[in-house]
Amino acid sequence: MSGMTEKIKACGEKYRDYLIEMRRYFHQHPELSLKEEETGKKIKEELESFGIPCRHVGTPCSNGVVGTIEGGRPGRTIMLRADMDALPIVEETGYSYTSVNDGVMHACGHDCHIAILLTAARILQDLRQELSGTVRVVFQPAEEIGRGAGMMIADGVLEGVDACYASHVWATLPAGTIAVDPGSVMAAGSKFEIFVKGISGHGAEPHKSVDPLLTTAAIAMNLQSIVSREIDTQEPSVLTIGHMESGSAFNIIPAEGYMEGTTRTFSRAVDDAWADMIRRVAENTAAAYRAKAEMKYTYLLGPVVNDEEMTELVRGSVRKVGGEALLGHMKPTPVAEDFSEYQKRIPGVMAFVGVGNADCDAVYPQHSCHYKVDESALLNGALVYAQVAADFLG
Length: 394
Ligand code: NI
Known about the structure:
Helix content is about 35%, strand content about 25%. It is an alpha/beta fold. A hairpin with a 6-residue loop joins β1 (about 55) and β2 (about 65-70).
């Protein structure tokens, strides 16, 4: 174990209770996306109490917080990120520190993320003389609605940053492991809408009309051939139509049809190709039925893709903190995360901190009203943040 790792661990030991106290405080006071005002204030207060200069960022809400830890010597800059928003869920955990905000719950573990990064920031601030370079700690709002990262980037949090790191607590990963894998680890997710135009008429005389209802149904069927016939089978992808409507009565051919759906993929190439593939199938199917179709594609989030070189560095950091036993693996998850926005611009890694443990009833999935974590796993999460920063800056 290197000298720096020993120092990080010694500091971590001092702040073990602090981490749990913070996690429970934020768990009890959850706030929805773009409404994290009190959360942001508390984070800023905590950082300032450690002597870390910080400011609020974000437009339209300035609930985000960016703090700067200057090392003893000049060097590169690494960004450590945590998200901080909660979900519109009625909590059913039975925790003594259950949410006091009705209908709002930290059911994705972002309370843990805040506590972990505050603790890592405190450790790094104590040890800043030993660092060559700068650590930027970023507490980001509005992750659950996929908007926070974009807001932070628009406000310049990536300026001068060379790499970024974040971790997400994960219920299906056993406590005592931190999964760090190269390549795509979380999926891209987007939305498409298709507007079909026909010519309305009497149900008894279809030859005098153009039927948009039948056309919409045909487009729904044909879209399924994109995943089954066109995309590489090695690139797991999903196209789901979640809503479709046309017509108003049994004997009328309507004028319009509509559908909307979502796409998911782990591949940046497939993600870039969706819009063209869906438009081609929709327009040409409509043409075959003498109708017209227009497609609107709303790009939401790209895949979370871990940089190979950074992955190696983070794996090394995990080994330093907890040996080979701490280093785990996880299958990519089809959930989307706006950390992908940072990774599109600079190399970054998203790791997963296992918090699953049947002994403390931490067996429920992310976003469950029963969501629980094994709190004893969180300190290693904080130590790895600090170690990654130390290793990257050297
Ligand atoms: Ni989350």
